[in-house]
Amino acid sequence: MSTSVTDALERGAQVAGELADVAERVRAFTVDVAAPGAGGTGSGVIWRADGLIITNAHVARAERMTVTMHDGRACDAAVVARDDARDLAALTVDAVGLEPAAVRDARTLRPGELVLAVGSPLGIRGAVAAGIVHAPSARGPGGRRWVRADLRLAPGNSGGPLTDALGCVVGINSMIVAGLAMAIPSDVVQRFVDGPMQPSLGIVARPVLVSLAGDPALGLLVLDVRPASVASASGLATGDVLIAAGGHPFDSPNDLMGELDEAGPDGVLPLTLLRGGRRMTLDARLRGGGSRVEAA
Questions:
Q1: Which of 32, 43, 70, 87 is flagged as catalytic?
Q2: CA separation for the pair 28, 45 (Å, rounded)
Q3: What phi, psi does 191 have (nearest 5°)?
Q4: Cα(130)–Cα(165) distance, rounded to whole angstroms?
Q5: How far is CA 199 from the centre of its chain?
Q6: Is 58 an active-site residue?
Q7: pTM for this prediction
Q8: Is 134 marked active-site?
Q9: How far apart, in Å, are the Cα atoms of 193 and each of 42, 48, 89, 197, 261?
């Protein structure tokens, strides 16, 4: 066997061993999350050493959950915050010796990067799946930004970590769409943990078709503006038709929610609209609601 082939095999074995070590570190901050007495489980991530666990909102449906650590410890957990729109929930446990995940901003990901998913698919605790980033920042369900990865998820992976090749969390696994894993980006998760809940314009609207330069386009007809809301303070009025937010035209009615999420609490979101046939832009100065996620 040639020296080059031998070197390649040795390097391959070294990489495989390093990847297995990374997977073991990720297992250490991955937990099982289940409602007491429930048969099915999801997964979660130890986000802070003080006992804060992050999972999906669709996993943490009860007010109290059971969290099982990698070492087998079962802990009672209280659900302290939930954001169904983002599919995120925060739980707290009273436990010691917790090692939190290292977190990487998902906005630094590049297509083709190796990623790992750890969870309990089909009840197999600590199972690992590997794949590559398909799109690090793509609009998807809910009009929101998602990390899309070409790897296999199954029931039980929901709420668990998507990590880079070094074991840093870049997303929370949520669903599968067209065969691709969809993860909530880590920066969105951090915003959920650190800041107020997603801001709201305070309007009721319905989708309509409008003509822009002779081409059909999606608009949102404002049916009602709540008093003392962000929309009211911005000058938005009943009868206005929103046609873009943040400079981005709407591809679906949910895109407005995605733009609100991107702008974040206390941000400024430019709204493009039609009023009486005239095109104009208003700046919506946002304000969040709710409070920070605190450990019990």
A1: 87
A2: 9
A3: -65, -35
A4: 9
A5: 16
A6: yes
A7: 0.74
A8: no
A9: 20, 10, 9, 9, 14
CA–CA dist 18, 30 (Å, integer):
19
Out of 43, 70, 134, 158, which one is annotated catalytic? 158
Express each pLDDT in 115-153 by its tens digit. Answer: 999 999 988 888 999 999 999 988 787 778 899 999 999
Burial of 265 (0-12, 13-18, 19+ CB in 10 A): middle
Report residue 36 as tokens: 């007491």
- Reported as a single tens digit per residue, the pLDDT across 223-276 is 999 998 999 999 999 999 999 999 999 988 878 887 887 787 778 999 999 999
